[in-house]
Specification:
This protein has 235 residues and is mainly alpha-helical. It has 11 helices and 6 strands. The chain has a 3-stranded mixed sheet. A 3-stranded mixed sheet has the order 4-5-6. Helix 1 packs across helix 2, helix 1 crosses helix 4 and helix 1 packs parallel to helix 5. The radius of gyration is 25 Å and the shape is elongated. The two termini are 39 Å apart.
């Protein structure tokens, strides 16, 4: 029986592009088996690591197509359309991943170290924010709703209430993790950002936010912010 080869042709085209891309990532000048390319490339590119299982499965399917193809118009292993669309999606993502500067660039509301807690509570009520970048000539730290709660617990649980409304400087001292953020360049991919959050948790250093600047430097203008909840929404 003669089978259509449109899907297999599309699959092999995408597979070959991925193969070339992996070779570029690892700098392979001579032939290297696809499985070995994956092993090497996943150490350098988080997207290869993310799609490792898919790529290994596609290598098996590619071998079945190529080795059982008896003519240009006859194949035994014809990929399902869903498989073809998936490998084409991975091919396109590897070629041009979405950057954090594209997805998360927005005007960020920043706060001054001498702003009052009352001001922040108003923002929480109106905008439902949970992270608050604090500056005073330069970046001073990131306040979270957890830090605010810690301050309230330490001050309101005693017999003597504070005589003045606290400032964000006071709240910063009650952030359990004083370095609960990381500055990143707008040019890293959203998948690299996802990996930063994951590695932070694995190393016992959970980041509450990634702060985006031009080159990932604290003194540069804040271009956007990424929270763990934002990352959960990434495919």
């Amino acid at each position: 029986m003669k089978l259509g080869t449109e899907n297999s042709d599309r699959f092999l085209t995408a597979f070959n592009r991925i193969d070339h891309r992996l070779r570029d990532i690892v700098g392979a000048k001579d032939f290297m088996p696809f499985y070995r390319l994956i092993d090497q490339a996943k150490k350098k590119d988080v997207l290869v690591k993310k799609y490792e299982d898919d790529l290994r499965s596609y290598a098996d399917l590619r071998n079945a197509i190529v080795h059982h193809r008896t003519s240009l118009h006859y194949v035994i292993a014809e990929p399902h359309t869903d498989v073809v669309e998936r490998i084409e999606y991975i091919d396109a993502t590897l070629a041009k991943p979405t950057l954090v500067g594209q997805m998360f660039r927005k005007r960020v509301l920043i706060f001054q170290e001498n702003d009052s807690l009352k001001h922040v509570l108003k923002v929480i009520r109106q905008r439902k924010y949970t992270q608050f970048p604090v500056y005073y000539n330069q970046f001073k730290g990131l306040i979270t709703t957890v830090g605010i709660t810690n301050w309230l617990a330490s001050k309101m649980g005693g017999d003597h209430l504070p005589k003045r409304i606290p400032t964000l400087h006071d709240i910063l001292l009650h952030e359990k993790n004083s370095v609960n953020y990381k500055f990143v360049s707008r040019s890293i991919s959203i998948y690299e950002a996802e990996e930063i959050f994951k590695q932070g948790v694995e190393r016992g250093r959970r980041f509450e936010a990634l702060l985006i600047t031009e080159h990932g430097q604290p003194h540069q203008k804040l271009l956007g912010i990424i929270t763990p909840l934002d990352i959960v929404k990434i495919d």
